């Protein structure tokens, strides 16, 4: 029987995008509704993350959440507003969900698109929603926790307990720090009160959930996955790695379509493995001094580049610097870049990234070596993971709260070391690209019929 599955997440694109892809994959098996803060619906459609062809229903939660343009680069402010508006709004939303009566044997209109007047059989809820998911347990609605980050982060949440030392968060702190993995062999360092609370809530909900769904691949994180499965609180509770949840196509029409065509035409003119691609995601960006050093490094290397840099970040740079970049005719600085198109193109050589988990998975899936420039939250853990996989070099001293200015010389050295142009600065075959391509093949096998992610997904569909 096709069940009605509700997916609910927070208004953050690092969470929205993989859960939308999960919704698409579930839809051939079950009827699906995707719910997120009403505030985000317009931008989701504007970004073409959904279309009328998608086989699921999109629902806006009237939780009162909003974000000013000036707040979009303040990770701490976003986190605070999620707790102020989204969590209580989600509680009210979940309390009002219709659920099947004990006498229902099937649903009406089983073949049609669902609405939230139809009883909900199962919920897949974003782990950041924390205690809001307790409502589902109280109402007897089975739910799975969705973790949009790495399996290592899930393991961190299981290690944090009431005895974990913590420190107060500074008042008016609008930026989130790095999250460190606790080392069980040493005395744990104090973590932020807010982060501790978040992990404790995740841990509590794990004890109530039917299972955990992970946007990862077993072979990428074998040690973390095995540690999770052996944890006492996970006994009898499935942990399913069903990733990477990367959309197979990048919808581009209208203005974005024209921009994508421009970028693809420019890439087609470049030599193979010659282009440096730079993107720091949708929230954080380096300091102005760091960006000036990046420009200096690009100028010194003299290789073509594409830099995805939001308009508000471009406005922080001296006008003469942006003008100088345009005069080089070497690179493109754009407010929006079709990332999957760029990473898959034969011309792309290296990806300078903040190491958000989605970007990290895309680098692996497309076999592109990385210069890791983490900014906050789990991004340092992700960057170190890419380094251990042999496909990345980590820039030291980065971070949204760091006072260190990364030198252009260090970035130049990292880019040449990883292999701009397909070879390292020592002239040998590029070991970083070899490692990246090997991991790309691992993901391809995992998502093919009989592979680990494919098998885990089919098990999940049995709900």
TrEMBL record:
Record membrane topology: Single-pass membrane protein
Entry superkingdom: Eukaryota
Record-level GO cellular component terms: membrane
Protein localization: Membrane
Keywords assigned by UniProt, alphabetized: Glycosyltransferase, Transferase
Molecular functions per Gene Ontology: glucuronosyltransferase activity; quercetin 3-O-glucosyltransferase activity; quercetin 7-O-glucosyltransferase activity
EC number(s) reported in the record: 2.4.1.17
SUPFAM superfamilies associated with the record: UDP-Glycosyltransferase/glycogen phosphorylase
Reaction catalysis annotation: glucuronate acceptor + UDP-alpha-D-glucuronate = acceptor beta-D-glucuronoside + UDP + H(+)
Region feature (Disordered): 239-258
Main location: membrane
The keyword Glycosyltransferase is assigned to this record: yes
Family: Belongs to the UDP-glycosyltransferase family.
PANTHER family given in the database record: GLUCOSYL/GLUCURONOSYL TRANSFERASES (PTHR11926), UDP-GLYCOSYLTRANSFERASE 85A1-RELATED (PTHR11926:SF774)
Name under which the protein is recorded: UDP-glucuronosyltransferase
Lineage: Eukaryota, Metazoa, Ecdysozoa, Tardigrada, Eutardigrada
